[in-house]
Design brief:
Elements (H helix, E strand, L loop, with lengths): L1 H23 L5 H21 L5 H22 L7 H20 L5
Amino acid sequence: MTAWILLVVAGLFEIGWAVGLKFTEGFTKLVPSVLTIGAIVVSMYLLSVAARTIPIGTAYAVWVGIGATGTALLGVFVLGEPATWARGFFLMLLVGSIVGLKLTTPPPA
């Protein structure tokens, strides 16, 4: 279970660096750039640790799914990006896929 917790935390850091990219202004702003790079490093490291026990295909897909879903939601609710029914529908499909991967991944040996 620890690997799954690490994977979720890695996904949260992915959200952080993806949103952080907006504030780096092409890595021309020092503080947002340093924070974004730090989040990238932490996210990748935690993904690599989780992938020691979770199959890499599942770990990567869940990591990307968490990051994409969280980033899209923050884009809508914090950054004022457009919210449409279609966008919400496909985000729900993405979340369903993440849950499905978790439920169908066998426990580590």
